[in-house]
Design goal:
The chain is an alpha+beta fold. It is built from 17 helices and 17 strands. Strands 2-6-7-12-11-10-8-9 form an 8-stranded mixed beta sheet, sandwiched between helices. The structure holds histidyl-adenosine monophosphate (HAM). The site of histidyl-adenosine monophosphate has 24 residues, from strand 7, strand 11, strand 12 and helix 13.
Length: 484
């Protein structure tokens, strides 16, 4: 039964609460004074004491000895709530497109990435964490997961499954890049791959539609999709184009920076990726791949564009979008978002029809993408989409042995109803308990003293407005289950 609390009839704990509310100002003041006194004393502690000034530097040094490795970081609450929300949304959206989850290992043979991503790429030649395992095999922390998914496809004979096989993954990747905002050495990707079956342009468009739906669901700000086709590796298509590009680049070689000069010989397409200001006007004059695609690749690209139109997906064409991994052909795409500075690519992907075969599997069509989850989260945070600090529904302020036993029982009942409960492990004065309840952002404090338990009348305090209500046990549990 619900009963309004009147100060004349309140049992011990509830009475104390009323008094405490009046005295709170005084407690705050005396706490501050004690704090001032203790901190002041520590600063002037006698020489030789553990906290003396001469010992402080070594104490600080010992404390800061272990730090997360450069380019790696701890993801902590409340931010992890946003990570979970993003991942749950990915699972939900990708599920509606018929994708299932794959969890490949983080360690793979180095050779897998050398062959798939390309030995001359920055990722493989400079950025992989590679070590010799105890059996002397060369092993690497995965810098990306497309190669792993293809390895797994071959290893498990997935070509026997109804095609195409649609898989997604969520997890950490490792690249030893120079850390900066949005660029880490351990970062997280949410990726998806479609393997086998046909290379129908509708598949390319649906994969892009899926990632755009996901971003839309998250209300990611400033999303911009860019697409391109880099054709296929034949003389009448990309190979011919690359030869022309290389010849054109050799003619302007002296006007280019050292990185681009080197790339003219190792990977001319990557020169198009350059962000160097002084190279931009030169790059604009170079031959464009769209003018050198073979008829089939041209038709495929046109059909992808038409399919995107049918799905209402807005995009911009970018002839310089070549991507930094060797396995791509035909469709390539990248998505940028707001609030990220120079590292604004939040997703990259494309078609890779010969990768499975290159890794020793059957001829297999493939297309996919990977989202940089760290950047996605940064962009959401910059847009103010930060989760509220998760509080507790109920803080049980108990005092007395009998009350503790009752509190344990109440906590069990409430938790089994999905209500979050903080149950202090040791007795606290009610004042302390309420302070802690507020710090933990609790909605209610359930006041349980031995008297309350004996009388079967429990007090519930709403921390936001200080209102108190009294309930008999079963009604209180019902009330909480209904109101939370
Ligand atoms: P990627 O372009 O190398 O492609 O990476 C995809 C996304 O991962 C980037 O757009 C970026 O958001 C994020 N990313 C990459 N490096 C870092 C880093 N150091 N720190 C933070 N985020 C980073 C791939 O990895 C391909 N496997 C994508 C793919 C899947 N293509 C076909 N299927």
């Amino acid at each position: 039964m619900l009963a309004a609390t009147s100060s004349t009839k309140t049992p011990t704990a509830a009475k104390w609460l009323v008094a405490h509310d009046r005295q709170r100002g005084f407690f705050r003041l005396s706490f501050s004074l004690w704090h001032f006194f203790i901190v002041g004393t520590a600063r002037t502690a006698a020489p030789g004491s553990v906290f003396s000034e001469e010992n402080l530097p070594s104490l600080v040094a010992t404390k800061s000895k272990f730090q997360a490795i450069r380019g790696t970081r701890d993801l902590l609450p409340p931010e992890t709530a946003l990570w979970n929300h993003v991942e749950e949304t990915a699972r939900q959206v990708f599920g509606t497109f018929g994708f299932g989850e794959i969890r490949p290992p983080i360690l793979e043979p180095t050779e897998l990435f050398a062959r798939a991503v390309g030995g001359d790429t920055d990722i493989v030649s400079k950025e992989m964490y590679t070590f010799e395992d105890r059996d002397e095999s060369s092993t690497s922390l995965r810098p990306e997961a497309t190669a792993s998914v293809c390895r797994s496809y071959i290893e498990h004979g997935m070509q026997q499954l109804p095609l195409p096989v649609k898989l997604y993954y969520i997890g950490p990747m490792f690249r030893r890049e120079r850390p900066q905002k949005g660029r880490y050495r351990q970062f997280y990707q949410i990726g998806a791959e479609v393997l086998g079956g046909t290379d129908a342009p509708a598949i390319d468009a649906e994969v892009i539609e899926m990632v755009m739906t996901f971003f839309d669901r998250l209300q990611l700000p400033g999303v911009q999709l860019e697409i391109n086709s880099i054709g296929h590796n034949a003389e009448n298509c990309r190979a011919g184009y690359v030869a022309r590009l290389q010849a054109a680049l050799r003619e302007v070689r002296d006007k280019l920076g050292p990185d681009s000069q080197r790339r003219i010989e190792t990977n001319p397409l990557r020169v198009l990726d350059s962000k160097l200001e002084q190279e931009q006007s030169i790059i604009e004059t170079l031959p464009r791949i769209a003018d050198h695609l073979c008829d089939q690749c041209k038709a495929h690209y046109a059909a992808v564009e038409q399919q995107l139109g049918m799905r209402g997906v807005r995009y911009r064409e970018n002839w310089r979008l070549v991507r930094g991994l060797d396995y791509y052909m035909r469709t390539t795409f990248e998505i940028t978002a707001a609030g990220l500075g120079s590292q604004n690519a939040v997703c990259g992907g494309g078609r890779y029809d010969s990768l499975v075969e290159l890794l020793g599997g059957p001829p297999t069509k493939g297309i996919g993408f990977a989202i940089g989850e760290d950047r996605l989260i940064l962009s959401l945070e910059e847009a103010g989409k930060v989760p509220a600090t998760a509080g507790r529904d109920v803080y049980i302020a108990w005092m007395g042995e009998q009350a503790f036993a009752t509190a344990i029982r109440a906590a069990k009942t409430l938790r089994s109803a999905g209500i979050s409960v903080e149950l202090p492990p040791a007795e606290q004065k009610f004042g302390k308990a309420l302070e802690r309840a507020s710090k933990l952002n609790s909605r209610y404090a359930l006041i349980l003293g031995d008297n309350e338990v004996a009388e079967g009348s429990w007090t519930l305090k709403t921390l936001a407005d200080g209102m108190q209500q009294k309930f008999a046990e079963p009604e209180l549990l019902d009330f909480l289950k209904r109101s939370l």
